[in-house]
């Protein structure tokens, strides 16, 4: 497909921002996405885009039941590549510090405000409008490969259950590459501006450590062994371990997140629970991550007993592994060409500092995965907003990219 033909199917800016505003006005904290999933389904259905609900169930830990929304455009050539467009419907829990309705969708000075406006209902609106435009490409017989749209639940929750279920149910098996429209530059390893392509991300493990000491009366601490004190010493020692480094992903990191020793009012704490974040780069395996913590315990020679585990997960396969997509991959080339066409400039290239559904796709599913999304500020916080012009730009870039990559 030529560049001129692709631009023929550019998205309507007003319709794109109206769609985003309507979705921001539907609260959808993780595990509470039902209303937005229904909206996305009906929006696709009204345009004869044949959506389906894809059920997500996790009864053991979270007792969660929800639904992804998926739709597929079928190309004319079964040997042509299939492109996955992935965006999540959920947001973080509504933040209390908003000075206005957190779901207002207010637009001012080129910014649209609301919880999840940037992370990532803007990216969701962009791929929905791109998918609608690509349906016209398909109808004209100019789409050789398939395009699969997945609007997923629980990316912001503890386990990324929506995209995890896509992988475990085999829905991504026939895909050849993926675009995830998360806001990229705001969480990149280095300062970059849109238009930007993020070609990889660090991974993550979460230490869940139990420290067992010996209880005693608080007036005679020398008769006990404080699990709290030993857990605090371990937390500090873990921040000093030597982390890995990667030429693209940068350095790994360690960050203690929680230390809890109960609520006895006058007792030496007998038990403590320590949770520590460990962001990793390629080359840092689960075995190494565990060994680093075990060595930290050995170095301290604590009087307490220490049990090192990782956070409980619904399935052993649920892991945020690091990944890098080759700059020479055809999807990257298609995105670069589309960015030049739409924005008139070369995109910046970068790498994501944290984790998300893109890790599941780039590592677990083995898909060349690129993050390209509209940017904003205050994500996960009060005053979150997205730049409206970037929402439209991303929608156009995704449309042209898919038309080229699958065409």
Report what the structure shows:
There is one protein chain. With 407 residues, this protein is an alpha+beta fold. It folds into two domains: 3-202 and 322-405, Zn peptidases (Aminopeptidase), CATH 3.40.630.10; 203-310, Alpha-Beta Plaits (2-Layer Sandwich). The chain is built from ten helices and 19 strands. It has helices at 3-7, 13-24, 34-46, 117-139, 161-168, 227-238, 286-300, 330-343, 357-364, 388-405, and strands spanning 52-58, 64-73, 83-88, 107-108, 111-113, 147-152, 177-180, 196-201, 203-212, 245-246, 250-251, 253-260, 271-280, 305-310, 323-324, 348-352, 369-371, 376-377, 385-387. The strands form five sheets. Strands 1-2-6-3-7-17 form a six-stranded mixed sheet, with helices on both faces. The protein has a four-stranded antiparallel sheet with strand order 4-5-19-18. Strands 12-13-9-14 form a four-stranded antiparallel sheet, covered by helices on one side. A hairpin with a 7-residue loop joins strand 18 and strand 19. The protein is elongated, with a radius of gyration of 23 Å. It starts with a helix and ends with a helix. 52% of the residues are buried. This is M20/M25/M40 family metallo-hydrolase. Residues 200-301 form the Peptidase M20 dimerisation domain. Keywords: Hydrolase, Metal-binding, Zinc.
């Amino acid at each position: 497909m030529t560049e001129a033909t692709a631009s023929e199917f550019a998205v309507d800016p007003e319709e794109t921002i109206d769609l985003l505003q309507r979705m921001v006005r539907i609260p959808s904290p993780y595990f509470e996405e039902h209303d937005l999933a229904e909206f996305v389904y009906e929006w696709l259905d009204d345009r004869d885009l044949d959506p389906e609900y894809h059920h997500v169930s996790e009864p053991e830990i979270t007792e969660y039941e929800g639904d992804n929304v998926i739709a597929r455009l079928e190309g004319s050539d079964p040997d042509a590549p299939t492109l996955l467009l992935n965006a999540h419907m959920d947001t973080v829990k509504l933040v209390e510090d908003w000075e206005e309705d957190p779901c207002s969708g207010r637009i001012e000075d080129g910014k649209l405000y609301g919880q999840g406006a940037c992370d990532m209902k803007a990216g969701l609106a962009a791929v929905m409008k791109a998918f609608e435009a690509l349906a016209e490409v398909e109808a004209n017989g100019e789409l050789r490969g398939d395009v699969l749209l997945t609007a997923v639940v629980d990316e912001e929750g503890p386990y990324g259950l929506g995209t995890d279920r896509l992988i475990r149910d085999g829905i991504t098996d026939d895909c050849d590459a993926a675009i995830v429209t998360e806001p990229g530059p705001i969480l990149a390893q280095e300062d970059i501006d849109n238009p930007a392509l993020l070609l990889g991300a660090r991974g993550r493990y979460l230490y869940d450590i139990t420290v067992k000491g010996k209880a005693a009366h608080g007036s005679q601490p020398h008769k006990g062994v404080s699990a709290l004190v030993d857990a605090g010493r371990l937390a500090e020692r873990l921040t000093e371990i030597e982390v890995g480094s990667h030429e693209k992903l940068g350095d790994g990191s360690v960050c203690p997140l929680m230390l809890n020793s109960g609520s006895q009012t006058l007792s030496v704490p007998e038990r403590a629970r320590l949770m520590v974040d460990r962001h990793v780069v390629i080359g840092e395996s689960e075995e190494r991550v565990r060994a680093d913590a075990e060595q930290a315990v050995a170095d301290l020679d604590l009087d307490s007993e220490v049990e090192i585990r990782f956070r409980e997960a619904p399935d052993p396969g649920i892991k945020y592994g690091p990944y890098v997509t080759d700059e020479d991959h055809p999807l990257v080339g298609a995105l670069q060409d589309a960015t030049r066409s739409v924005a008139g400039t070369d995109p910046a290239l970068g790498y994501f500092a944290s984790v998300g559904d893109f890790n599941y796709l780039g590592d677990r599913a083995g898909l060349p995965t690129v993050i390209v999304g509209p940017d904003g500020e205050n994500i996960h916080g009060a005053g979150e907003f997205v730049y409206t012009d970037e929402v439209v730009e991303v929608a156009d870039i995704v449309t042209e990219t898919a038309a080229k990559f699958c065409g």
